[in-house]
Amino acid sequence: xxxLTVTDLNAFYGRAQALFNVSxxxxxxxxxxxxGANGAGKSTFFDSVMGLARATGTVQVAGTDVxxxxxxxxxAHGVGYAPExxxxxxxxxxxxxxLVGAYTARGDIERNxxxxxxxxxxxxxxxxxxxxxxxxxxxxxxxxxxxxxxxxQVLLVDEPTIGLAPKVCIExxxxxxxxxxxxxxxxxxxxxxxxxxxSLAERVYVLESGRVKAEGTAAELSENEAFAEAYFGH
Length: 234
Description:
This protein is an alpha/beta fold. It folds into two domains: 2-78 and 153-232, P-loop containing nucleotide triphosphate hydrolases (Rossmann fold), CATH 3.40.50.300; 89-151, no CATH class. Helix content is 38%, strand content 29%. A six-stranded mixed β-sheet has the order 6-7-8-3-9-10, sandwiched between helices. A four-stranded antiparallel β-sheet has the order 2-1-4-5, covered by helices on one side. Strand 9 and strand 10 (211-217) form a beta hairpin. The longest helix has 18 residues, at 166-183. The radius of gyration is 17 Å and the shape is globular.
């Protein structure tokens, strides 16, 4: 069953068009990845799905078209969004930041806090710590945790490895796999790190200048000469 279906998505900033007929699909319990360089359109894609950018086309979540609705309504339909970790309130505590994410799922606060703390024990240990004093890896954990507080069925994760040490990237990858395997979440990650994306995602979409230039499984794309040249230099 398709959990997220995006068809012919076009996005605009003023008169400038940023996405051109982008179509993707993600089934329940699947991890897919959007990869591309800076400016390829990955964050714009997420902004469009979340109602944060002007867009045309179709965005369906479990069969319901949500394109053009308010972000809070889209979150209430089961879409969680973990933007880059820089999109956090620096002087808010870890606990309060997580609770901000619960505004559409107030009845699930204790259950979701338990899930977040089981995935990221450090956030339980440091729940009174201000975000501004945390490491980059800890902030990424908070960003993911805040998105999980919304009780999502679809989780959008923007650049989960940017600026992080390899050890932390491995930890983040493990958490994303657990969310798929143990909780059945559908996960869409946007990444510049092609190796990370290919190691994690069942299917990959390659964005370039706002268009889907290639798509396929990790194995299929690894055998694509143009893809290998662009992302691995061979």
